[in-house]
Amino acid sequence: MKWAVISTWKMSLEGCRKAADLLAQGKPASEALIVGIEDVEDNAGFTSVGFGGLPALDGHVYLDGGYMDGDTLRFGAVGALEGFRSPIRIARSLADREFNNFLVGEGAGEYALKNGFEQRDNLTEESRKRWEAEKNKSQKLVSYDGHDTVCFLAKDQNASICAGVSTSGLFLKETGRIGDSPVCGSGYYADSAIGAAAATGVGEEIMKGILSHTAVMYMNAGMRAQEAAEKAVLDLDLQLNRRNGSCDAISLITLDRHGNFGVGTNIVFPFVYACEEKEPKLYLARREGNHCIYEQVDDITTVKQD
């Protein structure tokens, strides 16, 4: 396939359409990926990414983002970033640096301000009201309840592959908490000679398996994209259940150097895929035994997601 793109959750459908249009025009994967992710970051209707993201325990919205160039293996990332529009665009710019590629907190904010990135208060009235209503309740932090990472993997017509992720993290997380999303190798990984992978779910679980890099190495060893995604998720799920008695929700998308995709999950998980042969469509994946099966979903309203 000349080009391909895959993204997580039904909230990425419109962004995937935009990314696919750019890839079809011959634009680079890096440009298409950023446009796709920014479509999600700018939509206040999605409470897990960017504008309208759900706050931490202190009532502030902190954003994480990561980007990797599969041609050079350079990466950039920001964590616990407050007051800026697009963590993915900032992360992309950091990938051009030789050092200081992963910035967090005040340092990330200082870099973004110095380099002229657009500022924005990402706390909306709706997200503030939800925080007010739930901040004092005793509750277990969980993923997939309105705080899901958006992940994009893209291959362009020059055979370049890149990976990008963006999230506001767990609702009511402790100040300073960073999950897997901006961590290269766990939340995302890309190598144009092999393929790419990106993860969404409970970051503390995903980081235990360095999940995205693991899947890419499975593809490097000869596995198909689907086999690699399934095995990476299944192995980690089995290991954590054996050691700890449980494994929280984890999902993974993969894209090989030919444009073939894969998905692994231990829950019911929506994703979007497109290539020059297929227009962007929403699919629903679920684990069945040791495998992951998926089907196209025509009516996206049937997939529950905040």
Instruction: Give the N-to-C terminal Cα separation.
Output: 33 Å
What's the average pLDDT? 94
| CATH homologous superfamily descriptor | (Glycosyl)asparaginase
Number of domains: 1
Share in β-strands: 25-35%
Characterization of this structure:
The chain is an alpha+beta fold. The protein has 8 helices and 13 strands. It has a 9-stranded mixed beta sheet with strand order 4-3-2-6-5-1-11-12-13. The chain has a 4-stranded antiparallel beta sheet with strand order 7-8-9-10. Helix 1 runs antiparallel to helix 2 and helix 7 (211-220) packs across helix 8. The longest helix has 20 residues, at 225-244.
Features:
27% strand; 306 residues; alpha+beta; 8 helices; Glutamine Phosphoribosylpyrophosphate, subunit 1, domain 1; 9-stranded mixed beta sheet
What is this structure, in a nutshell?
The protein is of the alpha+beta class. The protein has a single domain, classed as 4-Layer Sandwich (Glutamine Phosphoribosylpyrophosphate, subunit 1, domain 1).
What's the helix and strand layout?
Blueprint: E1 4-8, H1 13-24, H2 29-41, E2 63-69, E3 75-81, H3 87-94, E4 102-104, H4 105-114, H5 125-134, E5 150-155, E6 161-167, E7 188-191, E8 195-201, H6 203-206, H7 211-220, H8 225-244, E9 250-256, E10 261-265, E11 269-275, E12 278-288, E13 291-296
Parallel strand pairs: 3-4
Antiparallel strand pairs: 1-5, 1-11, 2-3, 2-6, 5-6, 7-8, 8-9, 9-10, 11-12, 12-13
Helix pairs in contact: 1-2, 7-8
